[in-house]
TrEMBL record:
Residues 23-220 form the DJ-1/PfpI domain. It comes from the Bacteria. This is Thiamine biosynthesis protein ThiJ. Belongs to the peptidase C56 family. HSP31-like subfamily.
C-alpha cells in the first residue's frame, strides 16, 4: 500500500485585530488534493487544534473547489481534523502545508507540527507548502540542529504580495524576510505569477495561483522515492 499524504490546515480564524476572518485558503487545499487523490493517495488532515478548520477563499465557481467541498469523505475530514498527537509520521510519504493568512499566527510556534514534519522528512519523505503555508517551515529544525530551509532554495508569499493585499503591518512577520533570516535562498516571481521551487525534497509555491503545480511537483518528488 502506498503511504499517505498529510495536509496541514490552520486553526486560526482572525486576521490579527482587524475583525476580519481567515483560515485555510480553499483552492490551496483543493488543487493539491485533486492531484494527490487522482494519483490514488489517501489524504489526511491535521491542524494545530484539531477539529473543524476555518476556511477562507471560499469560491465554489472554481470546479476543483466545488469537487473537493462536495466530496463527503473529505468534507468530513476537514470538519474533523486530527491533532498532531493523533498522527503517526511513519505512515506518510509527504506533509503539505496549505496556506491562508491564519497560518501566520499558529504554524510557526507549533512544535508538535514541526516535529511531525522533521520525522517525515528524515524518513526520506517530502515537505511541501504553498503561499503562507511556508510559515510552518520557518522553525523546523533537523536532527543536525540546522533549520530545514537553511541553504535551500525556497519560495513563498512575497513581501510585495503582502503589501499588495495591505496586510504587511497586520501579519506577525513578513514570511519572505523570515525565511531569508533562517538561511533560505529565496526565489520569487512577480506578484500573482505561478512559481514553484524544488530543492532536496522540499517543494514550495508562491501564491494561490501556484497551488496546483505545487501538488504536481510534490507528487513527482514522492514518485522519485519509490
Amino acid at each position: 500500500m502506498d503511504k499517505k499524504i498529510l495536509i496541514v490546515l490552520t486553526s486560526h480564524s482572525e486576521k490579527g485585530n482587524t475583525g476580519k476572518k481567515t483560515g485555510f485558503y480553499l483552492s490551496e487545499v483543493s488543487h493539491p488534493w485533486d492531484v494527490f487523490n487522482n494519483a490514488g493517495y489517501t489524504v489526511d488532515f491535521v491542524s494545530p487544534k484539531g477539529g473543524k478548520a476555518p476556511v477562507d477563499g471560499f469560491d465554489l465557481d472554481d470546479p476543483i473547489n466545488k469537487k473537493f467541498w462536495e466530496n463527503e469523505l473529505y468534507h468530513h475530514k476537514i470538519e474533523n481534523t486530527n491533532t498532531p498527537a493523533q498522527i503517526n509520521p511513519d505512515e506518510y510519504a509527504a506533509i503539505f502545508y496549505a496556506g491562508g493568512h491564519g497560518t501566520m499566527w499558529d504554524f510557526p510556534e507549533n512544535e508538535a507540527l514541526a516535529t511531525l514534519a522533521q520525522k517525515i522528512y528524515e524518513n526520506n519523505g517530502v515537505i511541501s507548502a504553498v503561499c503562507h503555508g511556508p510559515a510552518g517551515l520557518v522553525n523546523i529544525k533537523l536532527s543536525n540542529g540546522k533549520y530545514l530551509v537553511d541553504g535551500k532554495k525556497i519560495n513563498a508569499f512575497t513581501n510585495e504580495e503582502e503589501s499588495a493585499v495591505k496586510l504587511e503591518k497586520i501579519v506577525p512577520f513578513l514570511l519572505e524576510s523570515k525565511l531569508i533570516e533562517r538561511g533560505a535562498i529565496f526565489e520569487k516571481s512577480a506578484p500573482w505569477q505561478v512559481h514553484v521551487t524544488v530543492d532536496s525534497r522540499v517543494v514550495t509555491g508562491q501564491n494561490p495561483q501556484s497551488a496546483h503545480q505545487v501538488g504536481e511537483a510534490t507528487l513527482k518528488e514522492i514518485e522519485k522515492l519509490k
